[in-house]
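Incident log, entry 3
Record: General stress protein CsbD (63 residues)
Problem: checksum mismatch between cached and fresh output.
Input:
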Amino acid sequence: MSAITDKIKGNWNTIKGRLKQEYGELTEDDLTYEEGLEEELIGRIQKKTGKTKEELKNFIDRL
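Fresh output:
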């Protein structure tokens, strides 16, 4: 399990709030978290924001 997965699992409500602040186009559906599907979640956010996977992982890691 990666460090980013651990961070998402442990702090999702905080991370979700910051993502919504940073990327207003994200909806609740875009940010629905299911354990074990972290990569799918990152992919949905990536598709909606146009950011790379690395950019999003770095954003989350900085929180």
